[in-house]
Amino acid sequence: MLEPSQFKDNEAWVAFRLNDEPIRTEHAGHFNCIAIMDAASGFIFGTGLVSVAEQEPSTFEARRLLKASLERSGCTPATLFIPEGQLQVALPAEAKRHGIAVVFLHETELLTFTGEAKQGFREHVQGGRA
Q1: Cβ contacts of 11 within 8 Å, gap of 6 or more
Q2: Parallel, antiparallel, or unpaired for β 12-17 and 79-83?
Q3: pTM of the prediction?
Q4: Which domains does the chain have, with CATH numbers?
Q5: What is the pLDDT along the chain (130 residues), one digit of tens a residue?
Q6: How, if at all, do strands 79-83 and 44-51 pair?
Q7: How deeply is 32 buried, as exposed, middle or buried, from its count of CB atoms within 10 A (0-12, 13-18, 19+)?
C-alpha cells in the first residue's frame, strides 16, 4: 500500500472527491467537491465544485483546478493518482497535457492520503454525516 512517506513534496498528487454525499444547495442543485492534494504532505492545492448531474468536471473546470494547483504549488508533479471510476476523462487529459503521468488506483489504496481530508470535510462541512 502506498504511504505519504514514500514521496517527496510535489512528486505525486492525488485527485479525489472530498464529500461522501452530494453537497445540496437550494437553487443551484447538488455538487461534489473535487480536490487535488500533495501525496507527501497532505496539502490541498485546489478544490472545485462539480455538478452531480455532470458527474465529471468539464474540460474548463479540470483545466482551472489543475492550473490553480500548479500555480499554488509552484511546480509540476511527476504523477497524479486518481481513484478508479472517478474523474476519468477531463482531469487525466489535462494532467497528461502538462506531462503528468496519471495512475488509476482503487479508492481504498488512496485512503492513507485522502482519509483525513475526507473526515475533516465530513465533520466541518457535512455536519459529521457519513
Answers
A1: 39, 40, 77, 78, 79
A2: parallel
A3: 0.91
A4: 4-124 (3.30.420.10)
A5: 799 999 999 999 999 999 988 888 877 788 999 999 999 999 999 999 999 888 889 999 999 999 999 999 999 999 999 999 999 999 999 999 999 999 999 999 999 999 999 999 888 775 655 5
A6: unpaired
A7: buried
